[in-house]
Write a structure and sequence with these properties.
Blueprint: H1 5-24, E1 34-35, E2 38-39, H2 43-62, H3 73-83, H4 85-108, H5 117-131, H6 133-140, H7 147-174, H8 184-207, H9 221-237
Antiparallel strand pairs: 1-2
Helix pairs in contact: 2-4, 2-5, 2-6, 4-6, 4-7, 4-8, 5-7, 6-7, 7-8, 8-9
């Protein structure tokens, strides 16, 4: 049997030495950050995030209106589909937005070598914004006569999702848990798309106060991305 007397007699001195060693190696002992002195693997967080995103997309589809028994004939069904075109369009926009969020998440977290407590918390807030999207999508297309509130709530949810993800990734980078080999260009390009997406929805919020065509701003995502890329390359060519 192993001799445990040394472990019991070490007492506070051993704990102090262990804490000092953790500080020197950057291991803060924060919940979820290390396991056995090693960074926690990001795989469980990635799998969990994938599952939550899949559920959110499924809930989007479940909210789609379908013809009931009161609708008769081909013309009746076509008329029903035309009447609910706004709901189907909103579904496609939300599906597109969630899909972009997921692609950005899986593209950037592949370079994560571990997790910090801050990364986990920001990622959970990002997931909160994702699972709220079926609700904000339904609110956007509801019959309530409050266009400004409906669009701003929807756009704010998208902006917060982008913001929470950026904060999670910033914490990942700050904690030294990011593999930078051959990833700088991919990371920069992907974060550029995330920033452009956040700006597209952010711009639509004040625009909604003056026109009911604020959602057109969302289609400007490629234009905003191109503008950000030009600004980034500008100083280099000067």
């Amino acid at each position: 049997m192993p001799d445990t007397r040394a472990q019991h007699t070490a007492g506070p001195q051993a704990e102090t030495e262990k804490a000092e060693k953790a500080q020197q190696t950057g291991e803060t002992g924060e919940a979820g950050e290390t396991h056995g002195g090693r960074p926690v693997s990001p795989e469980r967080l990635i799998y969990f995030s994938d599952a939550v995103v899949a559920i959110a997309i499924t809930l989007l589809a479940l909210e789609l209106p379908v013809p009931t028994g009161d609708v008769h004939g081909n013309s009746g069904v076509l008329h029903f589909l035309r009447e609910h075109l706004a709901e189907y369009t909103a579904f496609l926009v939300s599906f597109w937005a969630i899909a972009i969020h997921w692609m950005i998440h899986q593209r950037l977290f592949r370079y994560a070598t571990g997790l910090s407590g801050g990364v986990i918390r920001w990622n959970l807030l990002w997931l909160l914004a994702i699972v709220l999207m079926p609700f904000t999508t339904k609110l956007l297309t509801s019959e309530a006569d409050a266009y400004q509130v409906q669009l701003i709530v929807y756009a704010a949810d998208q902006v917060l999702a982008c913001l929470f993800f950026r904060l999670a990734f910033a914490d990942l980078r700050r904690s030294g848990l990011l593999s930078t080999s051959d990833s700088a260009e991919v990371v920069s390009n992907t974060l550029g798309w995330l920033t452009a997406m956040m700006l597209a929805f952010l711009i639509s919020m004040p625009v909604a106060l003056v026109t009911h065509w604020a959602s057109v701003c969302w289609a400007l995502l490629p234009v905003i991305r191109a503008g950000l890329r030009s600004l980034r390359r500008g100083p280099r060519s000067a």
